[in-house]
């Protein structure tokens, strides 16, 4: 924090003790807040100009530089000392990079951090439910990261440490892909709304016996998608029972096996909302082996909009979740908090940011009777 007044101890050239040293009050210096007020920008913008950050328009940069020159503003020695200890590095914790969602999210974080002038220090957990949390934070803090993004999916009880976190975390935290919680900065996709959109679309196409193959239900995302499926059918006064759904594990194989079970136990089945596109691929293969025509006899909607889904046979209707926007928002939220801390500005309340998914309609769900 910068002080309004700065004092210098000036030696008069003698070594005779206190009589030879005087404390002189220096001229009052302009503050970063005063520069920001005159320039009509935020203190964060002034800080970005001072640190030659790229995310400032040329016009704004010129205006701020002119005000700095006019006011003869110079950051205090203390502020410069603090800035010299900034690493412009973000610590990122991830797990399950063999899954599409976590891998695409990590790629987005790396890209957004680089665009903002930050490097990334990565720690991949051996499993989603790692319990030794304190050493992870200590490793990051010893490398002087400016903030930590916790990009591990919420699986089982792997978030229980949040209720009793390490007490010596001295940098901001942003969490991804988890249930909203007060006093935490969280960025996530609205998986529940995605499930609702998928089933509503199938109902609009005239399907009435809509089953569900969920992801593993220890995943928060899978539970949210299943809840969306259940609620839309219930609101449409359609019966929902245990025979109407099965649980998969995100893999294509589990999609095929899940369809086999669902086909046997839900004899009226005419459509399926599938928890991800990889499982949907297994469903398509298994359904074709049974001679079922898609979408004439079986409508399908997946989730994720992986690049390959447009080339399935038939092309798959799916729910798109934008992992890159998720990652970009997480990095922006983190950097905004970091800048506020370093500028001594008042921090905003932690935000729970939820991104809406979108429905991508393709042939697999377009029932001919609705043409």
Give a written overview of the molecule.
It is a single chain. The protein is of the alpha/beta class. The protein has 3 domains: 7-84, Orthogonal Bundle (434 Repressor (Amino-terminal Domain)); 89-190 and 324-356, Response regulator (Rossmann fold, 3-Layer(aba) Sandwich); 191-321 and 359-370, Response regulator (Rossmann fold), CATH 3.40.50. 38% of the residues lie in helices and 17% in strands. It is built from 11 helices and 14 strands. The chain has helices spanning 32-39, 43-50, 58-71, 77-84, 100-115, 134-142, 191-204, 220-235, 252-265, 277-289, 323-343, and strands at 7-11, 21-25, 89-94, 119-124, 147-150, 173-176, 186-189, 210-214, 245-247, 271-274, 299-304, 317-320, 352-355, 358-360. The strands form 3 sheets. Strands 4-3-5-6-7-13 form a 6-stranded parallel beta sheet, with helices on both faces. Strands 9-8-10-11-12-14 form a 6-stranded mixed beta sheet, sandwiched between helices. Strands 1-2 form a two-stranded antiparallel sheet. α9 packs across α10. It is elongated. The model is unreliable at 1-27 (pLDDT under 50).
Which terms would index this structure?
434 Repressor (Amino-terminal Domain); Rossmann fold; 6-stranded parallel β-sheet; 6-stranded mixed β-sheet; 38% helix; 17% strand; elongated
Task: Explain briefly what this protein structure is.
The chain is an alpha/beta fold and about 375 residues long. It folds into three domains: about 5-85, 434 Repressor (Amino-terminal Domain), CATH 1.10.260; about 90-190 and about 325-355, Response regulator (Rossmann fold); about 190-320 and about 360-370, Rossmann fold (3-Layer(aba) Sandwich), CATH 3.40.50.2300.
């Amino acid at each position: 924090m910068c002080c309004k007044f700065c004092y210098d101890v000036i030696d008069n050239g003698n070594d005779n003790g206190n009589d030879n040293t005087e404390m002189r009050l220096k001229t009052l210096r302009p503050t970063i807040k005063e520069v920001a007020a005159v320039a009509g920008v935020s203190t964060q913008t002034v800080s970005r100009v001072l640190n030659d950050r790229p995310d400032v328009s040329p016009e704004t940069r010129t205006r701020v530089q002119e005000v700095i020159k006019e006011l003869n503003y110079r950051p205090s020695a203390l502020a410069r000392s603090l800035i010299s200890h900034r690493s412009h590095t973000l610590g990122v914790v991830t797990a399950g990079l063999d899954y599409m969602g976590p891998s695409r999210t990590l790629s987005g974080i790396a890209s957004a951090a680089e665009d903002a002038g930050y490097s990334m220090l990565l720690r991949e957990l051996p499993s989603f439910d790692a319990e030794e949390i304190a050493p992870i934070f200590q490793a990051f803090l010893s490398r002087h990261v400016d903030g930590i993004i916790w990009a591990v999916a919420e699986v089982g009880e792997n978030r229980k440490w949040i209720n009793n976190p390490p007490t010596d975390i001295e940098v901001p935290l942003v969490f991804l892909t988890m249930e909203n919680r007060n006093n935490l900065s969280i960025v996530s996709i609205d998986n529940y709304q995605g499930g609702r959109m998928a089933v509503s679309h199938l109902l609009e196409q005239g399907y009435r016996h809509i089953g569900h193959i969920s992801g593993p239900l220890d995943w928060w995302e899978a539970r949210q998608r299943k809840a969306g499926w259940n609620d839309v059918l219930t609101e449409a006064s359609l019966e929902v029972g245990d025979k109407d759904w099965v649980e998969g594990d995100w893999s294509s194989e589990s999609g095929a096996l899940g369809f086999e079970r669902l086909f046997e136990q839900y004899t009226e089945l005419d459509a399926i909302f599938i928890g991800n596109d990889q499982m949907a691929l297994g469903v398509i293969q298994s359904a074709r082996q049974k001679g079922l025509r898609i979408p004439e006899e079986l409508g399908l909607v997946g989730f994720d909009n992986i690049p390959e889904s447009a080339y399935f046979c038939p092309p798959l209707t799916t729910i798109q979740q934008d992992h890159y926007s998720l990652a970009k928002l997480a990095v922006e939220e983190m950097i905004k908090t970091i800048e506020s801390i370093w500028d001594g500005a008042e921090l905003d309340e932690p935000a729970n940011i939820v991104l809406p998914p979108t429905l991508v309609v393709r042939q697999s769900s377009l029932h001919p009777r609705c043409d």
